Amino acid sequence: MSRLFTAAAWGAMALSVAGLGIADIASAAEQRPSERDNRAGNRTQGPDRRSGQQDRRSQPAQVNAPPRTQPAQAPQRNTNQSQNRDRPPTMTEARQGAFSRQNQRQNQPQNQPQNQAQRDQRRDDRRDQRDQRDDRRDQRYDQRNDRRDQQYDQRNDRRDQRYDRRDDRRDYRETRRWDRSDWRRNNRYDWRSYRARNRSVYRIGNYHSPYYGYRYRRVGVGFVLRSLFFGSTYWITDPWYYRLPEVYGPYRWVRYYDDVLLVNIYTGEVVDVVYDFFW
């Protein structure tokens, strides 16, 4: 009996399993036409699905990022500016533009002192370089002038030496030509008769010797005087006033105490003498 009961139980279970399988097969058969319809619908609606996928791909993933501050909105440009761009500015607009640019330059903050100092330093360096070039130029100019002056002085010295030699030769010839008796034979230079009529003219005061302690010594032709005796203080600048002949070249009439001497002032040699000429 137990065996029959066990066989009956197993048979019932097999029938139940078979019923379940048949039900699953029927449900599967019913679902297949619907799946075919869905597939057909999906084929017809393929572009929309792809567009949706593209839209989902194009959209960035939402991340919990911090909120961003929106930039300040740029001021809208005036349409009149684009319209007036081709038109040349008037005088008033040009002045206003220049004034505004000047105000901008003046109001620009001085936030770069270091750059300004560097520019000033470069400017000073360039100025120093210019000064150095000017100094070198002046030095070369001075050197040229010094050489030119030296050459000029040398030429002048040689010219003066030639003049001096020429004057010496002329003085020597004139000394040889001076005739002490020639002017005495000329009545025009008769100083004795003129002095007799004009005695006050020849009274010119005391003579003061240029050398301390020196006393009168009679000198003659050929004597060489010391330089202070024929200085310009003792020259007779107007010989005709005393009826003496005019002199030339190196000769000068010189007062020597009461005498009158004709002296070659280059050499100090006495060329002619008139004794007791003054009172």
Summed up:
With 279 residues, the chain is mainly alpha-helical.
Give a quick set of tags describing it.
mainly alpha; 279 residues; three-stranded antiparallel beta sheet; single chain
What is the element layout, followed by pairings?
Layout: H1 2-44, H2 46-58, H3 79-84, H4 91-107, H5 113-177, H6 191-197, E1 251-256, E2 259-264, E3 269-274
Antiparallel strand pairs: 1-2, 2-3
Q: Structural class from helices and strands?
A: mainly alpha
What is the first-to-last residue Cα distance?
213 Å
Major sheet size, sense and barrel closure = 3 strands, antiparallel
- N to C succession of SSEs: HHHHHHEEE
The neighbouring-strand order within the major sheet is 1-2-3
β-strand amount: 5-15%
Mean pLDDT equals 75
What shape does the CA trace take? rod-shaped
Assembly state here? single chain
- How many beta strands in the DSSP annotation? 3
Low-confidence stretches are 44-49, 51-55
Number of helices: 6
Helix content: 40-55%
Radius of gyration: 69 Å
Give structural notes.
With 279 residues, the protein is mostly helical. It contains 6 helices and 3 strands; from the N terminus they run ααααααβββ. It has helices at residues 2-44, 46-58, 79-84, 91-107, 113-177, 191-197, and strands at residues 251-256, 259-264, 269-274. It has a 3-stranded antiparallel β-sheet with strand order 1-2-3, with no helix packed on it. Strand 2 (259-264) and strand 3 form a beta hairpin. The N and C termini lie far apart (213 Å).
